[in-house]
Amino acid sequence: MPKPLIGISTYLEPARWGVWELPAALLPAGYPRLVRAAGGLAAMLPPDDGPGAAAEVVARLDGLIVAGGADVDPVRYGAEPSPRTGPPARERDAWELALIEAALASGTPLLGICRGLQLLNVALGGTLVQHLEGHTGGRGVFGEHTVEPVPGTLYASLVPEATAVPTYHHQCVDRLAEGLVVSAYAQDGTVEAAELPGSAWVLGVQWHPEMGTDLRVAEALIRAASPRSTPSGLTPPDYPAPPNATPPVRPVPAAPAQSVHTAEPDATPAGCSAPVDTGPLSPSGV
């Protein structure tokens, strides 16, 4: 059976390699490695502002990953920028929102990672917290914390136990979009995963599975994207817990941080933009 083709959205950033310094479509190598390890084929999807481009691209895919990246432009959810919000990536915002819209319209399996979860929430009418502390290991260093699944959700059916995840973000879901269901929380109450119940497979996670070793979420995406799978990739779960259920609290053991290795020594790491002590955030990218 052919392997499912999974498109992954990319950065569009100035870059240097060899003798060249040019605009480039960039994607941390962890993303295609994750797709390959889970059993799929990866294709990069750089921003394209052509009319109908997103729908045409998604029509050729078996699944879609919206990758981590810069802060979502607050204008997209009707807010003024906070002093701690990084410079917007407007071209990428427009492209990835169009990809999400096309995936939802076509029933294409969709996994949002970090920024991807935030954009999914914004696409459906939700808002974001523009700054929070404690979800990185420092500038350019992934942190680690525990996430607790909400019983009865799709995510809990894949990962039923509390797990430590690699994390690097300073924004998160604020008002949950109508239709979305929270499926995991951090100890501090941050929404760490949300999903869209229905016939299609739609899940967003706030952490970075491409930086870890747990393949269960990615493997479920691949199953859902496989030609012979059911639309959801597994038996649809019940949803007994309301979206705003009180998050569980459990002690989180200390864990070593994971460093980010970048192609450029002074580049900001991949993932959602990093918090800094003062002033606006630098755009992320590797």
How would you explain this protein's 3D organization?
This protein is an alpha/beta fold and 286 residues long. The protein is built from 6 helices and 14 strands. Strands 1, 4, 5, 6, 8, 9, 11, 12, 13 and 14 form a 10-stranded mixed sheet that branches. Strand 5 (63-66), helix 3 (90-106) and strand 6 form a beta-alpha-beta unit. Helix 1 packs across helix 6, helix 2 (53-59) packs across helix 3 and helix 3 packs across helix 4. The protein is globular. The two termini are 34 Å apart. The model is unreliable at 230-286 (pLDDT under 50).
Keywords:
single chain; 286 residues; alpha/beta; ten-stranded mixed sheet; globular
